[in-house]
Amino acid sequence: LALSSDGKRLFSGSHDKTIKIWDLEGGKESFTLRGHTHGVTSLKLAPDGSRFFSGSDDKTIKAWDLEAGKELFTLRGHAGEVRCLALSPDGNRLCSAGRETHFEKSVEIKVWIPFTTYDRMKGMRSVSDASVQPLTAIFPSQASAPRIIFFDPYF
């Protein structure tokens, strides 16, 4: 789930491969986006509200134009499903995390600047959430082990 900054729209990703945008004031679905070939696992809105990103079990991240209601591009590079997304406050760096393969229990984290991928960390067992911290420029990753690992995505 993701909520627009003005609180008027809710975005939901589903295992039925769709993304629905809901009008919270009217209480109705505004429209549905299709493009992933497997379930949608994560959503992240850009700070300016003009676009958003979706991660999927299909190992891709898609960028969407909100006004046009269509896909802008697809980022490929994950070996396994994409589990969570984090976007820097300026919208120029997208971080993604997911399993390396469907059967392995290690995690890969990628930083996309702006359309190129940089592998930054591998070897954890799972990731459930991530965020980009604006003041410290550090990306924390919550792993299934009882620890939080910090690394600098800006090199």
Explain the layout of strands and helices.
Layout: E1 2-3, E2 9-13, E3 18-23, E4 28-34, E5 40-45, E6 51-56, E7 60-65, E8 70-76, E9 82-87, E10 94-99, E11 107-112, E12 117-122, E13 127-130, E14 139-143, E15 148-151
Could you walk me through the main structural features you see in this protein, from its secondary elements to its overall organization?
By secondary structure, the chain is mainly β. The chain has strands at residues 2-3, 9-13, 18-23, 28-34, 40-45, 51-56, 60-65, 70-76, 82-87, 94-99, 107-112, 117-122, 127-130, 139-143, 148-151. The strands form 4 sheets. It has a 4-stranded antiparallel sheet with strand order 1-2-3-4, with no helix packed on it. Strands 5-6-7-8 form a 4-stranded antiparallel sheet, with no helix packed on it. A hairpin with an 8-residue loop joins strand 13 (127-130) and strand 14 (139-143). 32% of the residues are buried. The model is unreliable at 117-127, 132-141 and 145-151 (pLDDT under 50).
Radius of gyration: 15 Å
Strand content: over 45%
Structural class by SSE content: mainly beta
Overall geometry comes to globular
Question: Would you count the extended β strands for me?
Answer: 15
The average pLDDT value, as a whole number, equals 79
- The helix/strand order is EEEEEEEEEEEEEEE
